[in-house]
Amino acid sequence: MVNSRNRIVAYVGLLVLVGGGALAYPSASMWWRIQSLPPAVDRDVLYTTEVQPILEENCYECHGDERRKGGLNLDTREMLLRGGKTGPVIEDGDSASSGLIHRVGGIEGDRPMPPSNKPQLTSEQIAVLRAWIDQGLHWRAPE
Ligand code: HEC
């Protein structure tokens, strides 16, 4: 009796441990996917000459000039920080945790940005966007 009760307690304990672990690390596979992203470029990036052209060419069609597909608009820093219909898409200073980077890196579900029928960003472009977020999301060239 005692033995089988102990076994049940052990099973329940194991379930709680495994279940709790799964809840605590729902994104273990996401962690691996984040490691596969191109790392940020190792230099200061400029919004006007490097970042803005990437957004203009690849994103403004749906997220610029007051367009806001998915609730997201990239016209101003404030709008970008506000995020889209699912909430913030930028973790300021932390590109690895930024939903926007997960989308352009194609690691968030099967919904890459730009949508898969459009040309995808190159590794170099993702690396520039990552550095831009890591460096504090400067919006204008220093004057
Ligand atoms: C052809 C239109 C189109 C282009 C181009 C496009 N997007 Fe999107 N984007 C959408 C649509 C539609 C949604 C909402 C559906 C979804 O989340 O997949 C969306 C959603 C998003 C979201 C999630 C917003 C939220 O809160 O759910 C992010 C982040 C995003 N886009 C970033 C970008 C970036 C960055 C670019 C350029 C590199 C880009 N998109 C290019 C159409 C586009």
Question: In short, what is this structure?
Answer:
The protein is mainly α.
Please characterize this protein's 3D structure.
The protein has about 140 residues and is mainly alpha-helical. It has helices at about 1-25, 30-35, 45-60, 60-65, 75-80, 100-105, 125-135. It has two domains: about 1-30; about 35-135, Orthogonal Bundle (Cytochrome Bc1 Complex, Chain D, domain 2). It is about 50% helix and about 0% strand. Helix 3 crosses helix 7. It is elongated, with a radius of gyration of 20 Å. The structure holds heme C (HEC). Heme C (HEC) binds next to helix 4 and helix 6.
Strand and helix layout:
Blueprint: H1 2-24, H2 28-35, H3 47-58, H4 60-63, H5 77-82, H6 99-104, H7 123-134
Low-confidence region ranges: none
Question: How much strand?
Answer: under 5%
Write down the secondary-structure element order.
HHHHHHH
Number of strands: 0
Evaluate the radius of gyration: 20 Å
Helical region count? 7
- Give the distinct bound molecules: heme C
Tell me which CATH architecture of the largest domain applies here. Orthogonal Bundle
Structural class: mainly alpha
Q: Total domains, how many?
A: 2
What gap, in angstroms, lies between the N and C termini? 79 Å
Portion of residues in helices?
40-55%
Average predicted confidence as pLDDT:
90
User: At the third CATH level, what is the topology name of the largest domain?
Assistant: Cytochrome Bc1 Complex, Chain D, domain 2
CATH class call of the largest domain = Mainly Alpha
Question: Could you describe the largest sheet, including whether it forms a barrel?
Answer: none
Shape, please? elongated
